[in-house]
Specification:
- By secondary structure, the chain is of the alpha/beta class.
- The protein has one domain (9-276): TIM Barrel, CATH 3.20.20.70.
- Helices cover 35% and strands 19% of the residues.
- The protein has helices spanning 33-45, 66-79, 128-141, 152-163, 187-200, 215-224, 249-262, 270-276; strands at residues 11-15, 50-53, 55-56, 62-63, 84-87, 109-113, 117-118, 123-124, 144-149, 172-177, 205-210, 229-232, 239-241, 244-245.
- It has an eight-stranded parallel β-sheet with strand order 11-10-9-6-5-2-1-12. A two-stranded antiparallel sheet has the order 3-4.
- A hairpin with a 4-residue loop joins strand 7 and strand 8.
- Helix 1 (33-45) runs parallel beside helix 2 (66-79), helix 4 (152-163) runs parallel beside helix 5 and helix 6 packs parallel to helix 7.
- The longest helix is centred in the N-terminal third of the chain and has 14 residues, at 66-79.
- The radius of gyration is 17 Å and the shape is globular.
- Bound molecules: magnesium ion.
- Magnesium ion (MG) binds at residues 15, 18, 52, 54, 88, 90, 111, 235.
- Magnesium ion binds at residues 15, 18, 52, 54, 88, 90, 111, 235.
């Protein structure tokens, strides 16, 4: 396992909105399409090169409306040239049958959870048939998946998709740690996950997301282990400290960029980010 990769730049991914935090939790959470484009543009200027997108209905509930996804994508392509656009196919409160509908707009990437897991108040259901269907749609539309790993078994779910020819042999995987009732944010668990990734998906690129107060510490663990990318943003964490709300996605991206520097690495450009993740 690589322990030092000072020669390779780090992709900063920003998850701008998510499906849980609301404006009453932090007024900086972007909800409308215009707010999402503006917030992402600021994050882009601060060094983010990948944007993970959920969209909301007017009442802030999670939406699967393909037109909203398309509108955000159009704004990002105009105002954040080269930035990697990644649609979420997950999220709470969405009809499973509708989660793949926005893929027809051909974002660069989409998130793909390869198994089910307990979340704070629900079961996040990803049946084997749904996973296969979403992977097939991504292949059809030329969308690269980011495999969301909420549990060790999800790595093997990804391996099965490789064997089925639905995804290629160098997927981008993200370990998600610190979701209540799911995998805790424990450093030795990251080592277990990485060892298993190297064993069964040796060409994979990887990143890790720490939820809530775990955001910074998981980022440090990932950077210490040579991660290809780090993830930040208001979807995962709305605070800078216990007592202070983050002022914007850009502020969180700035903290991520500082962490990258602290670990002796540098922030990827859009071209470098695309090359790292196998995108044109
Ligand atoms: Mg998400």
């Amino acid at each position: 396992m690589a322990t030092s990769r000072s020669d390779t730049p780090v992709v900063i991914a920003v998850a701008i909105t998510g499906s849980v935090p609301r404006k009453k939790d932090n007024p900086a959470v972007p909800v409308t399409v215009a707010e999402q484009i503006e917030s992402t543009h600021q994050a882009f200027e601060a060094g983010a090169t990948l944007c993970h997108i959920h969209v909301r209905n007017d009442d802030e509930s999670p939406s699967s409306d393909p037109d909203r996804f398309a509108a955000v994508q159009e704004g990002l392509r105009k105002h954040c040239p080269g930035m990697i656009v990644q649609f979420s196919t997950g999220g709470r409160g969405r009809d499973p049958a509708a989660r793949g509908l926005p893929l027809k707009h051909r974002p660069d990437m989409a998130s793909l959870s390869t198994g089910s897991v307990n979340f704070p108040t629900i079961v996040y259901e990803n049946s084997a048939s749904l996973v296969t269907e979403l992977a097939g749609q991504m292949k059809q539309y030329g969308v690269r998946p980011e495999i969301e790993i909420f549990d060790l078994s999800h790595l093997h779910g990804a391996k099965r998709l490789v064997e089925a020819g639905l995804i290629d042999t160098r997927p981008h995987v993200q370990f998600v740690m610190g979701v209540q009732n799911a995998m805790p944010a424990e450093e030795h668990l990251l080592d277990i996950l990485l060892a298993e990734t190297h064993r069964i998906l040796p060409e994979a690129t990887w990143t890790a997301a720490g939820i809530g107060r775990n955001q910074g510490v998981v980022m440090d663990w990932a950077l210490r282990r040579g991660a290809d990318a780090v993830r930040t943003g208001l979807e995962d964490n709305i605070r800078v400290t216990k007592d202070r709300l983050a002022g914007s996605n850009a502020e969180l991206v700035g903290l991520a960029a500082a962490a990258v520097s602290r670990h002796g690495r540098r922030v990827a450009t859009t071209a470098e980010a695309r090359a790292a993740l196998g995108l044109r």
